[in-house]
Design brief:
Layout lengths: L2 H15 L8 H9 L6 H21 L5 E5 L3 H15 L5 E5 L1 H7 L16 H34 L2 H12 L8 E4 L7 H14 L3 E5 L15 E2 L2 H17 L6 E6 L6 E2 L11 H6 L4 E3 L13 E3 L2 E5 L7 E2 L5 H14 L4 E4 L6 H12 L7 E4 L6 H15 L21 H11 L1 H9 L1 E6 L2 H17 L5 H15 L6 H4 L2 H12 L20
Helix pairs in contact: 1-2, 4-6, 6-7, 6-8, 8-9, 11-12, 12-15, 13-14, 16-17
């Protein structure tokens, strides 16, 4: 940020306008420009797309440089996450936001809480993207406002060292604005509908759009039953639609994440038309469960007949009209889905699995990388997994295979609190802690996310407060469980007036009105009680 240069430019502009601009302070204007670096969602999308491309290249060279995000269902949640990251880790580097379709359905729909089945309003997706970036930009404005205050205090005290330090902090300020990986579900309709929604998402700031290969009007949560996939040609048309949306809006580095649900999907709604042996349609149809057709007696009214390997076959169709895949074909369908998506324009992959098992993921990724060597994954560290039980059972199985005596453990009851201090539980927690770094190294996972963690943290913290406040603790439940902890941890929103923009407003009033400004941050403001933590 060229703070001093910006002041000089505005000063020259002021001089060119003459006496009419005599009340304009060039430094104040430069501050407001600095606090509004990203003026449109497209500015955000172009900036964050560049970040993702840089991070992807760095990951290709060094598997320790994976990226992470948490799902956020409100702008305030995303803002507080990024403020906390900067506070605790000093930088937002390699940290993103995730926009979860599940949480939009559950928390942001005008219909009320809905399951993750694409029943919510599609416009709520770009609306949340815009909201998240509004809050992140406000976090920038607030933090820069504090730095400007430090600069003013240093100047008033005649402290040139402090003044130089403040200017350096302003010049080298790191924004809270980071990439969002945004869930477009299965596109909310046909390829034109996907294109139109993708445009709105990009205009709101999305540099990365995740799309899945389920049937749009039969979409299910990735961790529920009854998932139905579409043929490759249908999915690729939607990948094309998203790419064209990026290109039309000038976001040339836009990132597309192609998600496959084939590992857990046993059904298809549509049998594609094969034009020549071995084409994509033919490969897709080869996975269908079929029965032989030996004569007219094997054909019922309305049956569909296809020819495979020189034989007439009848696809097995369920009463609802859907067609079933052969059992144990999920692995091969995932590999074909991923290879095809990358070969036709996707940048990253998402494989929805039923458990967090590094070896399982790595086996699929290795098969994909044998054909597309730079294939990288976005992986859902899902709250739908029982992480404790999964990893305790993984350790149990590994130790059993090693020949260790496991008689003190009951594999089916390893979730029990009785095992919490056991050697097995300790080892399982180590593996959970190291899961992301291990999976980045072994399974080429570029980005780790948790889809709906803040859904759960909101419920957990509310439960804890409600238990005490409405019980015997009364006000102490809030003071000890919330406010005192905020103060001790240095959480900025303990001064909630400042976080909501009160000090920003005071600054603007001073810019606009000078000494006449009626400001809220005087000595009677109760937020002053939190100056000393």
């Amino acid at each position: 940020m060229a703070y001093k240069n910006e002041i000089e430019l505005i000063n020259a502009l002021k001089a060119s306008r003459g006496e009419a601009w005599r009340n304009i302070n060039p430094e104040y204007a430069a501050r407001m420009r600095a606090q509004n670096r990203f003026q449109t969602g497209l500015d955000v999308a172009k900036y964050t797309a560049g970040i993702m491309r840089k991070d992807m290249a760095e990951f290709d060279a060094d598997k320790t440089k994976y990226t992470q995000s948490l799902g956020c269902w409100h702008g305030f949640i995303g803002q507080q996450k990024m403020i906390s990251i900067k506070k605790h880790h000093g930088t937002t580097d390699k940290r993103y936001l995730y926009l979860s379709g599940w949480m939009i359905a559950a928390l942001r729909s005008e219909f009320g809480p809905l399951p993750d089945q694409s029943m919510h309003e599609k416009t709520s997706v770009p609306s949340l993207i815009e909201e998240l970036y509004t809050f992140l930009r406000q976090a920038d404005a607030r933090e820069l406002g504090h730095l400007f205050g430090d600069l003013d205090k240093a100047r008033a005290a005649g402290d040139e060292v402090a003044e130089a330090a403040a200017i350096n902090a302003i010049e080298n300020y790191e924004t809270h604005v980071v990439p969002i990986i945004a869930d477009i579900d299965a596109g909310f309709g046909n390829e034109e509908a996907t294109y139109l929604l993708a445009k709105r998402m990009i205009e709101a700031g999305a540099a990365c759009i995740q799309i899945e290969n389920q049937v749009s009007d039969a979409k299910q949560c990735g961790h529920q039953d009854g998932k139905v996939t579409v043929p490759h040609e249908d999915f690729l048309s939607k990948i094309n639609a998203v790419r064209y949306a990026f290109l039309e809006l000038g976001v040339d580095d836009g990132v597309i994440v192609a998600r496959t649900d084939s590992l857990g999907a046993g059904l298809t709604q549509k049998i594609p038309v094969s034009k020549e042996p071995g084409d994509l349609a033919s490969q897709y149809n080869a996975f269908l469960e079929t029965t032989p057709v030996n004569g007219p007696e094997d054909i019922n009214d309305g049956d569909m007949i296809i020819k495979q390997d020189g034989e007439l076959r009848k696809p097995v169709r369920l009463p609802n009209g859907l067609y079933r895949f052969k059992e144990n074909t999920g692995f091969d369908r995932v590999v074909l889905d991923c290879v095809t998506s990358l070969q036709y324009g996707a940048d990253l992959l998402w494989i929805e699995t039923e458990k967090p098992h590094v070896q399982q993921i790595a086996e699929m990724v290795n098969a994909i990388r044998a054909i597309v060597p730079d294939a990288k994954l976005v992986y859902n560290n899902s709250p739908s997994f029982n992480w404790t039980l999964n990893f305790r059972q993984q350790v149990f199985d590994a130790w059993t295979e090693e020949g260790r005596d496991m008689s003190e453990y009951d594999r089916d009851k390893l979730m029990s609190v009785d095992y919490d201090t056991s050697e097995l539980a300790v080892e399982a927690d180590v593996r959970i802690r190291d899961f992301q770094s291990t999976a980045a190294r072994e399974a080429n996972i570029f980005h780790h996310l948790i889809t709906l963690p803040t859904y759960h943290t909101a419920a957990l913290s509310t439960d804890t407060l409600a238990q005490g406040y409405f019980g015997g603790e009364g006000m102490l439940a809030y003071v000890r469980g919330v406010q005192r902890r905020e103060i001790r941890r240095g959480i900025a929103c303990v001064k909630h007036q400042d976080m909501a923009g009160s000090n920003l407003g005071d600054d603007h009033k001073e810019y606009f009105s000078g000494d006449q400004a009626l400001k809220a941050s005087g000595e009677d403001n109760t937020m002053n009680q939190f100056e000393v933590a």
